[in-house]
Amino acid sequence: MNHRTFTLRCFRISLIQRGACLIALALLAACGGGGGGGSNSATGPLVPGSSLPDTTLSTSGTIITADGTISGMITGGFVLDTGYPHGKIHVLIGSGTTISGPAPFVGENVSVAGSGSWSTSIQATSVSELATATVASPAPVATAVPQTIPIPSTAVSTQGSDAGIRTGGFTLDQGYPNGKVPVSVTASTVQIDGSPSSTGSHVQVTGTGSVHSGIAASIVTYWSSAPPLTTATGTIVAATAYGFTLDVDATHPAVPIVLNPTVVIAGGTLQVGSIAQVSGPGGISESITPTQIVVTNPTPQPLPNVTPSPTPGPIAQTHVLTADYLGGYYGTHSIAWSAARPYLNWASTNPTDANAIASTGIKTMYYTNPNRLQSNDPMYISDETIFAHDCNNNRITTVYNGITQYVTNVTSASLANDYHTTISNEIGTAHFDAMFEDDTGPLGEYGISPLPCGYTDSAWMTGAAAVAQAAPAPVIMNGLSLLNGHDPSPVVGMVNNANTIGGNFEHCYSDDSTPEQSGWLWQAVENTELEVAAKHALFVCMLRNTGTATTETAARIYATASFLLTYDPKTSVIWTYFATPSGLHVMPESQLVALNPKVAAPSSVAGLLTSSGAYGREYNDCYIAGSFVGPCAVAVNPNNAQSVTFPYPQYHHTLAIAGSSVLDGGTVAANGGAAPTTMAPLSAYIVFP
User: Fold this and answer.
1) Taking a C-beta distance cutoff of 8 angstroms, is the pair 604, 298 a contact?
2) Tens digits of residue pLDDT in 449-500
3) pTM value?
4) To bridge 452 with a disulfide, which of 163, 164, 388, 425 should be the other Cys (CB 3.0-4.6 Å)?
5) Burial state string for 194-230 with b = 16 or more CB within 10 A and e = fewer than 16
């Protein structure tokens, strides 16, 4: 049997069986049987990691009993050093294994019984801790120290869709912004619920390397769709190459827990035998890649001079994703671009300032509008096919700020070519990460009349996608606010086209005429945010409230709570317009990052309606400017006429904001007074313990 055939068989069996299969594969690859061994006949006190010099061995058919010292942990079991003559052997444990004493750990002296052979492994039916070792000169056994689980400093984790098999592994499409990356899979890679032939499936990968150049996978888990957020509690069984295994229950005795340097450890030391609560994407029938692990009780034998930390350390994400005008035609020129960098992710600017802004690490976008042309636009050319015409062959026009604009024909190949050529010439060598494309979407929603001859929404959207594809950089479409009645815009369906990375929603949750949106409109914005997040695309929430920041605190809290209610911290972007002295419009409340929601994102905001009448969502882990502030919750009453009961009385402090932008002395804290028991119409609170 060749290694590839054997490996593929490993992919299609249960997790415990797969552990045995991969061990056998490793032995096959090494062209050897059993484990190496050699004897260890030293006498005297036994110390952790040493072998028992005298071992009790017997075989009856395929039944084996052996005493020894656990010298290492493997996937699904451990390595037992039995001394002379058999040396080290792999012991596999599963749901049918009876364990007497603590969960196995390195240095423990145990007696094992089970089936197998000395040249392969033992499938244990029982593992019993030996209180003392049988040694030549009787002596007390030294106290074994449970194995500490290390956090791999070089591990990287990512996920996306399987984009196809390649030599030595497969290609992973991570989506925006990292794109496709090669993943190498070897005989030592643990693979769960699939194989590199599972093209189109959702995949989680952890290993060494880079999300840009390639990853050598230590563990790969295949899913039919993106895994949900999961919280599981159990006993740490064994250290592994990818992290450790967790005994959750009798049906799930060895759940793979995948570690990387971003995981936050709280409450104690991560050791074999400790009870741990893990939270992150995954499932107990497959694997979990936690963002946080809480050690809920002291380890049985804590290491000396170790003081458990009750509070998670800081995280790298110090604010939600943000956007603003910066430089260019509409943004401030009164600050250094580097001053905005700690607070700003996306800047709308012009070619003159783009390179300097991009050099700080801020992503840049360029305003374009191939959908409406004025006679003085660079894209305005004499080719009549680029313009939309009614059935009398008249150009279709609209008026903006008293200026006549011509509706373009997005189904025209000439328009796509004109868009690419003109914009490429305009930006020249300036660096832009995206094109902001205005006025995208069905014409009827814009009030255009008459419509082009033979017009249909579907054909128009297909043409709009082709125009976006011609842009010289990925496109953010401005058209999410063109709602389909009370439902999200058809433009939502375009945000995952080949060259489209997201959409912009103007007048999102707050604007000058309506500081706090209400009713069906508020629900439609929330549902749009949910739908775009589910596509893993950028949702840009543009508030369009230009009131002075210091006097708009109620609207700011309302919009922030509404945004956080359904946001994805990786793809949801908030863009505020509140007036500030510096001209930078990033507010301090954007530094609140809420992670690990207790309720997964629903398909509709209706799933977040509480029994009190308010909409709400709790998060397990909340941070301000990267520092942990505990759990938090958001509650919104979008009813413009009726008060409701505040749904989270167990929280005693509110988010407190003061002042203006992050560069104008604005502040944010989690120590505000308690929320009232009754929420007034159009009110919102963000609360902490």
Assistant:
1) no
2) 999 999 999 999 999 999 999 999 999 999 999 999 999 999 999 998 889 9
3) 0.59
4) 388
5) bbbebeebbbbbbbebebeebbbbbbbbbbeeebebb
